[in-house]
Amino acid sequence: MTRRLPSLGRIAAHLILFSTALSILAPLAWVVRTSLVSKKVAYLIPPDWSAPLSLSSYYVILYDQPFIKYLWNSLSIGAVATTLSLIVGVPAAFAMSRFNTGGSLLRIGILGAQILPAVALAIPVFTVVRMLHLFDTPFTLMIVYVSFNLPYVIWILAGFFAGLPPEVEEAALIDGCSPAKALILVVIPMAQSGIVAAGVFSFVLAWNEFLFALVLTGLQARTLPVAVAGLITQAGTQVGPMAAATVLMSLPVVALTFISQRYLVTGLTFGSIK
Fold first, then answer.
1. Is the pLDDT of residue 270 over 60?
2. What is the CATH number for 131?
3. I need a labelling partner for 184 at 20 to 30 A (CA). Which of 6, 126, 238, 272 fits?
4. Dihedral sign (CA 141, 253, 151, 111)
């Protein structure tokens, strides 16, 4: 029995996939490796891959700088902003998909809110925040992130709700449920995948946001992206501590992605095919 050789197309597909994966993973591997060597070795170009491991960069981040405080700021701001976005976005998306609330004009308005680049809004938002005496507070970033993330959440969930069968909700209404109770007890459990996907997307947007965190915070409400950028000083870039901070900053998002992985593909693609 002869073994059939793989076709040229299959070989080419594997080569493309391997090259793509290598181009994505190679920079990540370099960052992890740089975070595990001494400060002197971290500056070497080309890198010395045979250098002994060292945790000095992590010591600088965790003990010489208030990295834990900035980590808590990012976690709390991202979690609250995501929760508020879902609390407002779920009923809004459901009303738009089931009852066509606001019509096409509201849908275009929500989409139009994302047309302006963030840098164009930085000065007006900063001016309002200063007038309200809310500069350098976590509450300010929470509200700003909700206002920016809410349109994405509504668009993701509106498509998802549109793909759910309305007969289940009608049966719940016939059994005596109010529309709000049917939404909570019937629709939300059915839309669990879409809600998780929208929540993860919203959290990642808030976690990685840099511009408004830089403009609207000082030392008290500073988040991780701004703290990492602060490692670039007049004396030079602290390459080792920056790599260590990047690794630690990536861990919560990686963990969240793996935990919610089985929901993400369904949640992001369910409403695209009907």
1. no
2. 1.10.3720.10
3. 272
4. positive
